[in-house]
Amino acid sequence: AHHPRWVLSCGFAGAMDEALKVGDIVVADKLLCPSQPPIQLDFRMPSDPAGGWRVGGLLTMPHIVRTVAEKRTLAAEHGALAVDMETYAVAAFCREQHQKFFAVRVCSDDLSADLPPEVLSLLGATGSMRWGAVVGALWKRPGSAQDMLKLREQATVAAEKLAVFLDGIVKQLHAAK
Question: Please, what is the Cα angle at 158 between 60 and 9, to 5 degrees?
Fold first, then answer.
């Protein structure tokens, strides 16, 4: 019954460009997904690397892209700045509904290191934490505790930067006709 003027897809992404660091914002102007046609988003916004955001392609994959090597391969293949797991599907639905769409992602990891292998088992299908898997990961590799704490710190920093960015964007989208 409600018809919003805009649907925003916001959240975390993995950087696939060397210039992107944890906490940098990616505003998608093109959405990519293997075996699907690209979705071009019609808006005008310049990149501002000094301000911490870039405009460019966002790749959606059906799995967590954990390694630097896989990110680099996918970046070369698709020309995207970052990778996530949701945005393309949301955009495709909005396109079918003739709904205005805007995608903003913040980098929660960069190309400085692989994500720990435990990350694949710690998150459930909905993105929720699987606490039994956390205990199992700590039991098998106690050093994973340090890796998980680092990821949490990175996610916290990234989320705070995304919140500040979105505050300005939402006001601008609301004012736009």
Answer: 40
Coil, strand or helix: which one is 83?
strand
DSSP strands (E only) in 16-172: 25-32, 39-40, 53-60, 82-84, 101-109
In whole angstroms, give the CA distance from residue 80 to residue 101.
Answer: 18
What global pTM score does this model have?
0.82
Mean pLDDT in the chain? 85
The phi and psi torsions of 58 (rounded to 5 degrees) equal -125, 125
Instruction: Give the count of beta carbons closer than 10 Å to the beta carbon of residue 4.
Output: 8
Of 23, 5, 7, whose CA–CA distance to 15 is shortest? 23
Give the contacts of 5 (CB within 8 A, at least 6 positions apart).
100, 173, 174
Query: Is pLDDT of 105 > 50?
Result: yes
